Amino acid sequence: MTDLFAEVNGIKLCYDIHGEGEPVVLVHGFSDRKEHWRAQVGELSKYFKVIRLDNRGAGKSDRPEGNYSMKIYASDIAGLLDVLGIKKTHIIGHSLGGMIVQNFLIYFPEKVKKAILINTIPGMTPPGIPNEQGVKMYRENAVNNLELRKKDPLNNFLKGAKGSYTRKFYKEMVENPDKKFHGIWSVKDLVKEKTEYGPTKKDIIHQAEALATHNVYEKLPTVQIEVLVIAAEKDKSCPLTMNEKIHELLPNSKMVVIENAGHQSVLEFPSIINKHIIDFLKS
Predict the structure, then answer these.
(1) Which of 84, 96, 158, 274 counts the highest number of beta carbons within 10 A?
(2) What's the first-to-final CA gap in the chain, in angstroms?
(3) H or E stretch at 169
(4) Which of 215, 236, 224 is nearest to 170 (CA)?
(5) Model confidence over 102-150: pLDDT tens digits?
(6) Using one digit for the tens of pLDDT, what is the confidence trace for 3-34?
(7) Which of 198, 238, 11 has its CA nearest to residue 102?
(8) What pLDDT is attached to residue 125?
(9) Residue 184: which of 96, 266, 257 has the closest Cα?
(10) Domains detected in the chain
(11) How is 35-86 classified by DSSP, letter by letter?
């Protein structure tokens, strides 16, 4: 997996490419990096050219000062596509990545074939309701978790992950952090992802700043692109009801719900998620 770099919007973005075929861009979530798609890239790359990128302020991409917003994240993806000579692509986002993708559909619809939104929300609050308090709490919790993780990376990662997996699966994660789940990833791989190349406190502040700019309730009904919404039945971070709202607002969308799954369904239920992705993009 070779890291590649592109000059986009005055910064250096890190990305990698796997497979051949129609392009599919994968956009990661809050405090994550492109490697978070480790349970998808192998299967998807059998059918598509899979492009994973580190968002600005994440992974090995540059961490510029200045404002961070959903429009800037979306513009970075558009710029990367231009560098790669890709006129249209499929695009998939998880969590914060799903928020970025929603904005990409609004700002750059001409660049999208189909889109998939996984475990995300249309905004921190409905239109007209201030979101500052919610964003502030989210930012402070993330910063606190970061400081705790520095002291005891493994145990504090596990503590923070508890609500994102089914109870039985989480128990196995705690008991065997070296186990390669699905033959792909271990808990220690995820801890490494969180401790190498960020996120830093500044990264979290910038990502929360961008989160505060996300509110697409009133714009999603204008999106004509075909979209698949994949929700997790027991997601505590991006609840099922919020994904149902996205589906309701998008005029050309389908929705599937992964039963008993939490926010990290992409890691716990990859075979189910990957089948839904491949079937939708190939239909």
Answers:
(1) 96
(2) 29
(3) helix 167-175
(4) 236
(5) 999 999 999 999 999 999 999 988 777 777 777 787 778 877 877 777 7
(6) 999 999 999 999 999 999 999 999 999 999 99
(7) 238
(8) 80
(9) 266
(10) 4-282 (3.40.50.1820)
(11) GGGHHHHHHHTTTSEEEEEPPTTSTTS---SS---HHHHHHHHHHHHHHTT-
